[in-house]
Amino acid sequence: MIIVCGEALIDMVPQNSGDKEVFYPAPGGSPYNTAIAAARAGAGVQFIGRLSKDFFGEALIRRLRDNRVGTDMIIRADEHSTLAFVKLGKNREPEYLFYTEGAADRSFSIQDIPASFPAGSRCLVFGSIAMTMEPVATAIETLALRAKEAGNIVISFDPNIRPFMIHDREAYMKRFEKWVAVSTIVKISAVDFEFIYPGMDLQTALKKVLSLGPRLVISTLGADGAMALLRSNNGGLIEAEAPVVNLPVVDTIGAGDTFHGAFLSRLETRNKMSGEKIAALDAEELREALFFANKAASIVCSRRGAAAPTLEEIEKLPF
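RE: above sequence
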C-alpha cells in the first residue's frame, strides 16, 4: 500500500466564457493528485491529511473515494479549504496563486499524524507546498522520520517547488536536503532543479541529490521525457531515460503528480517496492517504469486538468 500525505485543495482552473475568463473549481493539490494517479494505475492507496468539512472538502473526499483511495486516516476539520487559482500560458508551466491562511490542510499538525502506519504500508509519499508552511511541514517531516525509523517503508519525495511560497531560500534548502536524506526516491522536475541548484547541469545535479542518501533520483523533463539515476546494491550507478508519447497537449496541470503516482504504482504492482528491490533494478526495468509513468503523464496532458488515466488506458497507449 502507498500512503500519501500533504495538501488537498481546490484548483480554480481558468476557462474562457465569451469575452470573459472564468474559473471553475476542481479537486487538486500535488499529493492529492499523486494519490489518485497511483490508485488509478492499480496500487492500493491511503491518504493522510486534514480536510475541511465545507462543501469543497466534501468534494475532495468524494473524489478520493470514487477513485478507491482510502480516507480512514483523514482528519475532518472546521477550517475552510485551500484555494489555488491557476493561470495557464502557452508552452509555459502553470502559475499558481494560493489562498491558504487558516485552511484545513495547512493546519495539519503533529497531533494529527497517526501513531503507526497501517498494516501493509510499503511507501510514504510527501512534498510540495505543504513543506513550505507550518505546522504542516513539521508534522509531515515527523511522519517521514518515523517511516525512516521503521526501516521497511520506501519514502518518496517530490518538492514540487513554488518559489513564491518560499520566503527564506537558505532555510528551505537546509530542510530540503534533510528531506532528501531520509528519502529512498526523489522525483524532481527540471524546473525545480533550476531553483534548487541554479546553473548546475542536470547530470551533476542528479549526482548531488543522490550523494545525499536516496537510492533513486528521477528528473521529469517536460516534452523531453524523464531520466533517472539509481545507486545499485553494488554501489554502481545505473542511468535510464524514457520518452513521452506524442499526444495533443491541452494543459500540463497534474502532469508531474501523475508521473509520480504512476511510477510508484508500477513499482508497487510489480512487487518492487522496497529499498533493496529498487536498488536491484536493472536499466531496462527502470526504463520501463519511467516510460509507464510518462505514458500516464502524456495522457493527463491531453485532458483538461489533473484527470489521471486508468491502468487500462495507460497499457493501451502504443509506443
